[in-house]
Design brief:
The chain is mainly β and about 250 residues long. The chain is built from 2 helices and 15 strands. A hairpin with a 2-residue loop joins strand 11 (about 175-190) and strand 12 (about 195-205). The termini are far apart.
């Protein structure tokens, strides 16, 4: 007759196997070459539509990067409402590039939430009852992916041209999905920094997904930092940011 304690262990192992068989793993990621930009503070003016309310305000990105770790802090504010969006991404730099440890987000009139990347257990833990997500390497959060994108562009500018596409696996608040960025066209923007040559990059969400659309204008002359970007929600809300100044640290 089977020992009771051994039977209990087998039951636990079976439960664990069933749990993880229902949790999708990230797609295998290509190891694109990457080149981190210098640490900097980027300041923006913003226009936003939040639930039909048109707002003006300011935005900032605090970027600190070193050989083995990084931190990104993104904030948009409007005089009428205060903080519209606050995102924080912290982690390490590994063979893939950015390797987040924690991603937190606070939206207007919503509670702050955090997504934890437990690399020792090879899983991402979401808030609430969402099951953990298995890690394979190269996964990004919704903030780090922007810096991963421009770091890849910095490393291979000749390949980062109109018509090219770059895919990363991105973890959100409850699950993950592949994000493909299409390099759309070269443009010239008039900014407080002067006229700036940029590449317009677009992330189009899958049809009927309700996911974010991102439009990003990267400036090779300014370390490939985004001098303009627009986050558009399926609800019609958006935040558009235009560069005001860049202070390298």
């Amino acid at each position: 007759m089977m020992n009771f304690s051994l039977l209990k262990k087998l039951q636990l192992l079976l439960c664990s196997a069933l749990l993880y068989s229902c949790v999708p793993a990230a797609l295998a990621q290509d190891k694109y070459p990457f080149n981190l930009p210098p640490s900097a503070e980027l300041n923006y003016t913003i226009k936003a539509n939040v639930r039909g309310l048109i707002l003006d305000g300011t935005g900032s990105i605090q970027w600190t990067g070193a050989r083995d770790k990084y931190r990104l802090l993104f904030e948009t504010r409007a005089a009428l409402t205060g903080t519209l969006l606050l995102e924080n991404s912290e982690g390490k730099i590994d063979a893939f590039g950015f390797a987040p440890d924690v991603f937190s987000i606070k939206r207007f009139r919503k509670e702050a939430i955090s997504v934890l990347f437990d690399r020792n257990a090879s899983q991402v833990n979401f808030p609430g009852e969402a099951p953990p997500h298995l890690l394979q390497g190269g996964e990004q959060d919704r903030l780090s992916v922007l810096w991963q994108l421009l770091s890849v562009a910095r490393a291979a500018p000749a390949r980062f041209k109109p018509g090219s596409a770059w895919t990363f696996y991105v973890l959100g608040q409850r699950d993950g999905e592949a994000w493909t960025f299409q390099v759309s066209e070269a443009q010239r923007l008039r900014t407080p920094l002067g006229e700036v040559d940029v590449l317009h990059v677009v992330r189009m969400p899958p049809e009927n997904s309700g996911s974010q659309q991102l439009d990003i204008w990267l400036a090779p002359k300014y370390e490939w930092f985004p001098v303009k970007f627009r986050i558009s929600e399926g609800s019609g809300d958006y935040i558009e940011q235009n560069i005001e100044r860049i202070n390298k640290k």
